[in-house]
Amino acid sequence: MAIILTGTGLDIDEKGLERLVERVFYKSIDLLGGLKKLTEFRTLTWLPSLARAAFAIVLREEYLKTEDDIADYVGLTRNTVRNILRADPDAAIYKIEHFDELTEEEKKEMKVHTAGGVAKLAYKLVKEGQDSQTMLDFCHEIAGEAIKAAKCEAPWAYIVLKNTKGISYPIVDSSELERMLKEVDIKGINGSEVAKGLTYPIKNPAILLHEIKEYLQMKGV
């Protein structure tokens, strides 16, 4: 039976809610090892549980909704919502990493508790700026194409994005960026030197370009 989600009466920003829930969901997929890894679990049927858990976590953390409100919204019982909200992220990740060691009964019980724990951890990471790497890679590509299409006055931005394709965010130090930009000239300054002068961590492609722009302004170029 299909469940129709509606925010009627909850006084929430529907689009804002869905955007954040989708980011949490995609980050959850990353935490589970990606879609390819999920096929090995043979438990794809609990992906809807993961989606509802993402809604439950965001509704509680961002909109301070009660268990009853959330239960009505996502079509679950109050007790199930309570289990999601109380789920332990560490225990969930442990179960995922030791899936083959679980009993058949434990595997059957994974839906609510594991989905809740994974969604809770994913929400925390997204709020810290650690979005799904797949989403960041996509944003990276789109930003590069947009700069290229607009014939931006800062061609270095496109070159930086092109040469840092595939880099993992957040970038926590300069080492990988130095390697990727060592052959790049950014307004007369070697890219590896620019990388050394940035502030870390860098959470996404937009912040990377912003940091480089500020560095160049500081250098007066």
Question: Would you write up a description of this structure?
Answer:
By secondary structure, this protein is mainly α. It is built from 13 helices and two strands, in the order H-H-H-H-H-H-H-H-H-H-H-E-E-H-H. Strands 1-2 form a two-stranded antiparallel ribbon. Helix 4 packs across helix 5 and helix 9 (133-149) packs antiparallel against helix 10. It is elongated and about 60 Å long. The mean pLDDT is 84.
Short description:
With 221 residues, the protein is mainly α. The protein has helices spanning 14-31, 35-41, 47-63, 67-74, 78-86, 89-97, 104-108, 110-127, 133-149, 155-163, 175-181, 191-196, 205-219; strands at residues 185-186, 189-190. The chain is built from 13 helices and two strands, in the order H-H-H-H-H-H-H-H-H-H-H-E-E-H-H.
Q: Distance N terminus to C terminus?
A: 61 Å
The percent range for helix content is 55-70%
Main pleated-sheet profile: 2 strands, antiparallel
- Main sheet: strand order: 1-2
Can you tell me the overall shape? elongated
Radius of gyration: 21 Å
- State the order of secondary-structure elements, H for helix, E for strand: HHHHHHHHHHHEEHH
Strand content: under 5%
Stretches where pLDDT is under 50 for at least 5 consecutive residues are none
Number of helices: 13
Structural class estimated from helices and strands = mainly alpha
